[in-house]
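Table S5 (text form). Sequence records supplied for joint modeling of the two-component complex.
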Amino acid sequence: MRVFFDLMWFFQEHKKRYLGGIVLLIVVDLIALLPPYVVGIIVNELTHHTLTRSRLAYGLLVILASALISYAIRYLWRILLYGGSIQLATDLRTRLYHHFSLMSPQFYHQQRIGDLMAHSTNDVQAVQETAGDGVLTLVDSITTGTVVIATMASTISWELTLISLSPMPLMAFAVSRYGRILHKRFHLAQAAFSDINDRIQEYISGIRVVRAFGQEAWERKNFVELSRDVVDKNVAVARIDSLFDPTIFVIVGFSYFLSIAFGAVFVIHGHLNIGQLTSFTLYLGELIWPMLAFGFLFNIVERGGASYERIQQLLHIVSEVQDRPHALHIVPSGDITYHIHAFRYPNSERAALKNIDLRIKQGQTIGIVGRTGSGKTTFMRTLLREFDVQDGDIAIGGHSIYDVTLNSLRQSLAYAPQDDFLFSASVAENIAFVRPDTAMETIERVAHMASMDGDIESFPEGYQTLIGERGATLSGGQKQRISIARALLQDAEILLLDDTLSAVDARTETNILAELRQNRAGRTTLIATHRLRTIEHADWIIVLEEGAIVEQGTHDSLWALGGRYADMYRRQQLESLVEQGGGRG
Amino acid sequence: MSMEGLEYALPEVKRGIFVRLLRYMLPYRGKVILSVSILLMATAADVFQPILIKIFIDGYLIPRHFPEQELMWLGGGYMALVVFTAGLNVVQLLLFQMLALDIIQRLRVELFDKVQKLALAFFDRTPVGVLVSRITNDTQAILDMFMTVLSTFIQNITVLVGILIAMFALDARLAIYCMFLIPVIIGIMILYRKVTSPIFHLSRQRLSQLNAKLNESLQGMSIIQAMRQEPRLRKEFGEINEAYRRVRFRNTQLNALLLRPLMDGVYLFTLALILGYFGLYSFSHMVNIGVLYAFVAYLSRFFEPVNNMLQRLNFFQQAMVSAERVFQIMDNTDAAPTQEGYANPEIKEGRVTFEDVSFSYDGRTDVLQHISFTAMPGQTVAIVGHTGSGKSSMINLLMRFYPMDRGRITIDGMDLRLFSESELRRKVGLVLQDPFLFVGDITSNIRLGNDFISSEQVVEAAQFVQADEFVRNLPGGYHAPIGERGATLSTGQRQLLSFARTMAINPIILVLDEATASVDTETEEAIQRTLQKMRYGRTTIAIAHRLSTIQDADLILVLHHGEIVEQGTHQQLLAQEGLYHKMYLLQQGGSTEINRA
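The corresponding structure-token record, covering 1182 residues in total, follows.
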């Protein structure tokens, strides 16, 4: 029930709605008492032959009127309460989305997208049910219960009410006992289900081993055992589960018995008439629902509480990358200086970058080369402030990147990352991602610079062709070029290409590089790549190994040095020879 | 009042799927009949309870006639009936749940068997998560249907019928009037369905838009942030979120207009009619109060089953969607190749021959073209070539992972297709590039499910591949636990264990897919020494990435775009100064001579 307190902020925000809804719910519960009461009177007058036409008409009118009024009220409270719970779900989703948009890559590294999605769908759903069905069930079962019992006690006979309700503690005892056992067994059943999930996951991942070693029969045996275990654990759950409702009905039946038996005695002694007894049993029938509802309520609230807790936990994570206090709103410009003594990724022992001292002059093109894992991407990510450097500093035009706001910093940087993620939207929308209202000519111009214009024009709907799951499938090279065009459209002072030309063929790459040289004169470009030919003409090349700069210089000076760069260069020339068939024919 | 607000919507039932699901009950005919009979008995007993009260009111209470003995019987009978009903209900509920669990178990195993028979290509195309979800989550959703939906429907329809019969027994004329309720209720359901169907679809559409937007944003968040588009995307998400809220609200409005509140209205209206009927009748005739009581009681119970069934409909809907997905896999025709004929030839010598083998995965581009060669017993044939040249495809064919396309592969002169699965798997040992380890311990990973391998043989195999030493140093030795994918071991150690796994079955033919993963030099040397040993006395087909490891091969095939462009021994190929020569020089660290080329 604690979740209701946790959600108090929302109930308070929507005070009128909830108060209104609850009042209406209570009113309708009260109105629901009228028909049985009227039935009782009419039955009574029938037995005593005192019923008149006008009395009958009057009684029927009351029933019909209460039918109409309660229809209207039931409609209204639903709109209020369920409308509220839908609003809560919408608010929670908005909050989550807002929160997600503030999180740094570190967050996405630790959380799996499937989990985050689950929070935003299943958990939000469970909270919504708590705020809707949960509130309803709570209010309804309490009001129905008290009102019905009060009516039975006050209008008919409090003695008979007490007698008929006397088996109830027994039910409370039984149900809570079942609940405890069920909880435990359910836990075991869930664990068994988890086991079989993991097992299949592993089986499918290792399918080649299974096939190669002919392990199908063994795997089947394992699977059958595990799925049998799931069945057994669930049967254990079912054994308790099937006791619930029948137990409640035995108790209710016992209540009926007591009320009829003692009611008859009361009738004989004239304390009660038959009509009252009829009403009484009808009221008793109205009590079945609140009793069943309470079990149901616990179920909803337990799930809702757990889900709300999970959502809160997520919302409480603070991003590691944030604007520092007093950060300036200046878009930095000028030479880039790296002074990094050591940079480690969170929870990592190994320095991903170390002893980087480098000055990149405004307007230069810098090539960053090195093996996978040598620190090329990290070099760029620290500049983008995807991760903050603890031990060292990076500055642009004399301003530390930590002294300006993230927003300002990112205005001076255009980034085409390694995993060229495109959105499921049209080609034009993807290119103009940074400024959706960009004129078509500009989009076409950057597409041309990225040598993508020809490809796009050959698409069935040109720039309006949809990309993504339901759209055209693009080749790796096409994706990379769109991602470059997208970055170019930003028109930022510093352009970062993180291995974004790897899937582009040699001739296209040359074109793109030529366009870049022409259009980005006076502005800085950083290109990280495996392929040395890409950065052959760069103003300065740095060679990274295990996070440190091991060689730097121009292509010619590095070639003359005859070190790692020269080595790599030679190998790559050979590799391209082999791939082309080794100069055969 | 009942569980008011569970939002329900009427599904579009795909009849074929439902019928097909029901067929899974056939093997359990006996149990189904038993459960249903008990359910019917329980329901009948349940319906009978108010009749006893009616007998009491009419026969004893109103005439003020109280013979002690008879009343004891009546009261005792009533309580006995209550307990009996409850007992039957417990049994019935349990039987249905057990039945459902059994059916799902059978469905799961059947699905698993089907997956086992699917071609590897299927696994290449289908993400692991999707497949896992089919076998577990989707079958779970179907379970809910068998567990609750079916019994709810059977039970509630029985209750309805029982109530109707009881009503007829009490007062046929009044019961006939009450029959008019049925078309009214059905009419409301049809109206509801008609009105909400478009809203329901819209709502699902909006929800999937919402999820798609969220998913995409989460995936592309770094780009969104780098390009400072957070505010715009928040706004876009907000709009989709709001659109979804609106359609949900509309749905709630319709539910409130047409479902429970309306049913309650109909109930009260009918109640008024019955009272009116009895009232008017009483002015000219004697009215039987007991009948009136029973009628009113039945009427109040009449609407419960209707509402119960409405509530279950969305479970039903979900189950149908899941069943459709499960059946998609069941109906997949992409089967893995199996033994043809019943000849059961044996592999004795291990002579492997490719005869003009061509192969294509997609039926359009050939990844292998006219491959022919023979590996004599005990020989090593090495396949080299760049990435995508077709090396792995050759192994996929030899392992019978994919069906033969054109040409044929023979072992000891017999067509590969003729061998039994067990013969092939025991005599042809594959060492995979990615040494996949299972959760378990060292022994279970070497032995796998091959019970014929004794613990001694496990140790021998480990010793043979020089894994014994590191295994003994592990806490627990051969019973040291291995976590998911063997994360606790180094790449080299995992590699050695996968060698041991292959050596434990002592194959005649060895198929090596050499690891590309880099290990430290020391481990690398150990691995190479072990491979030398393993190859000794066995026909070996090896994919090599490092030419240095196969210089002693009896035959080296150089693949380029699916064709054998050069073949011969190391020395012969070097002398040709072709592709192999260049690759060799490349791996030697390059030379100035090549540099000029």
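Note: DSSP finds 21 helices and ten strands in chain A.
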